[in-house]
Amino acid sequence: SHHGELPARLADITQVPIPLDPVFGKAFEYERNGNVVRLHSRPQSGHAPTSYSSNTYTYEITLKK
Hints:
This protein is an all-beta fold. 0% of the residues lie in helices and 23% in strands. It has strands at 29-33, 36-40, 58-62.
């Protein structure tokens, strides 16, 4: 539905519901770079991301043609 490409924004996905981050219950940050998408979880309120990423997660999805 996106002409074989990953959507530019997470909000562009309308065919299925987009779940919240299961760890923190918040929306993922979405970053697209060509055929790779990264979903970043945000730290809980009042917490800054740590340099060793123990309170944030990144999921990477690659579209192969």
